[in-house]
Amino acid sequence: MKKHSHIKRWFFTGLILLVPILVTVYLFLGVVNAMDGLIRLIPSAWQPDQLIGFHIPGLGVLLTLLIVLITGMLGASFIGRWLVRMGESVVERIPLVRSVYGALKNVLETVLRDNQDAFRRVVLIEYPRRGTYALGFVSGTGKGEVQQKTGENVITVFVPTAPNPTSGFLLYVPEEETTPLNMSVEDGMKCVISAGVITPDWQPPA
Asked: Less crowded by CB within 10 Å, the N or C end of the chain?
């Protein structure tokens, strides 16, 4: 029995060590291969494989970065901004596309732009009722009508569901009713994804 317990422990330890590595490598290679597929958009006579004579993995990544940079450069210009406005006015007239495009744009603008409050700190709030607590990620401050109607200094807190943090609840919480935590956003996400199995190390103040 003792030998079987050792084998079982070794097996699960191997799974814990190998599965994250294999899944990460698989996803990374999938992204690289998908980006390499963009090279097929180039006329065959100008494709690197034809010019060089052999295939170089990862060229699609460089092509993707180049496309993003050129798009950003054009979008920042006067003509580019005008074209973007014209394109968005067309998108706004297509019901389903309008919803998806607007949601993705808002998320990317919130995450990528320099916003000091966007998912930068973790707080503890009493949710869903008094006496029970949930991890929340501060995503901004309450503005406009919400701030005016509540009459309090509220902040927006995203409370993710475990173990899938891509869904959750957006709450407007008075800032004085939140408890700031010292853990990083990354550690907080690990705690949520593991359903509380992984908890970040913490040393009480001296």
From this structure: C
For residue range 162-188, list pLDDT tens digits in order. Answer: 887 878 899 999 999 999 999 988 888
Domain count, the chain: 1
- 185 in any annotated domain: yes
**Alpha carbon of 99 to those of 89, 104, 165, 166: distances in Å?**
13, 9, 22, 18
Beta bridge partners of 123: 136, 180
Cα–Cα distance measured from residue 193 to residue 185, given in angstroms and rounded to the nearest whole number: 12
Dihedrals phi, psi of 134, to nearest 5 degrees:
-140, 150
What's the pTM?
Answer: 0.52
* Residues 52-97 pLDDT 10s: 776 666 677 777 788 778 888 887 787 878 887 888 888 788 877 7
Contact between 146 and 171 under an 8 Å Cβ cutoff? The reply is no
Which residue range is the domain that position 173 belongs to? 122-193
Cβ proximity of 120 and 185 under 8 Å: yes
Phi, psi of 151 (to 5 degrees): 70, 15
